[in-house]
Automatic annotation (TrEMBL):
Signal peptide: none annotated. Transmembrane segments: none annotated. It comes from the Bacteria. Homodimer. It catalyses: D-fructose 6-phosphate + L-glutamine = D-glucosamine 6-phosphate + L-glutamate. It comes from Paenibacillus roseopurpureus. One of its GO terms (cellular component) is cytosol. Catalyzes the first step in hexosamine metabolism, converting fructose-6P into glucosamine-6P using glutamine as a nitrogen source. One of its GO terms (biological process) is carbohydrate metabolic process. This is Glutamine--fructose-6-phosphate aminotransferase [isomerizing]. The active site is at K352 (for fru-6p isomerization activity). One of its GO terms (molecular function) is glutamine-fructose-6-phosphate transaminase (isomerizing) activity. Residues 40-179, 209-347 form the SIS domain.
Amino acid sequence: EKGLYPHYMLKEIDEQPLVIRKVISKYQDSEGSIRIDAGLRNRLNEADRIYIMACGTSYHAGLVGKQLLEKIAGIPVETHIASEFLYNRPILSSKPFFIFISQSGETADSRGVLVTIKQLQYPTLTITNVPGSTLSREADYTLLTYAGPEIAVASTKAYTAQIAVLAILAFDVMRERERAPHVNPFHELSIAANAMEIMINKKEMMEEIVWQYLNASRNCFFIGRGVDYYVSLEGALKLKEISYIQAEGFAGGELKHGTIALIEEGTPAIAILTQAHVRANMRSNVQEIKARGAHVCTISMEGLEESEDHMVLPVVHELLTPLVSVIPLQLIAYYAAKYRGCDIDKPRNLAKSVTVE
Ligand code: BG6
């Protein structure tokens, strides 16, 4: 039930810190170690490459998952749009491991890949919010995201829960490979949950940003580098899905290779800047579009901020920043849709779970 909330989407955005804490409690054993099936751990440790399959928002979580698994666990990862992989399969490595990410566990495009991969007898894992769903039943292993029912068509808490589970998995595999971690994933996730709560309590600020930047516009750009780029894609998708504002996410460095042609006086752009190693590059990308007239709203992280930034996120582990930076973007999409009088929980032409190819 949505209770006092005007929309399920807002309720689900608000639930995110709690969901992350729930994920922590489900995956942490009494000794503080990671609780993951030993068989799954072994199969992952044998793999020479991980292939992540998903659609929509789950695909965006999969892109973040690639960074988590490569940078933390040290395993090469490819993230694919399921419907593309199905009919244009790349050359596979000799010991592949397949991860399916799906909120509903019912998406036909993802299932199409799972059926094929099972015929090839490669090991499979489904990360899903729905126990007993088709993708969960048909894969060798399942990790649940424990986000609770997600009613709004635009996915919010399922996305952050998927990222949290992928992070735990990455840290688990790293531990097995003895990459000398001094990081406690549960501690890092709970710092992120606290930071998420801080952002959720800044709703008025987000409403103000929407009023200032998106009130009269028909389009919007999102830019970032590394995981911030992947969050930009998700921010743009959220805005498109529910407010019908044409939005696009771009890699900060790619703008000058074409897209910058679309920037005119007053074009709104949202820049995300949480990655220290590309801070200077991102700052110059912001300058490039400002110089062409873009109306830029910058969301940065503490320690990387500049005085004119519009929102500063609390510091979290550098690969867990998507958990926090996505929140202002979800809220921006929400308020933009609200101002436009859109049907927030049931956007036109969209279904929560798509069971046809
Ligand atoms: C789309 C939904 O059709 O499917 C999106 O509208 C969702 O919100 C996507 O992200 C993938 O769904 P799932 O259940 O496989 O994560």
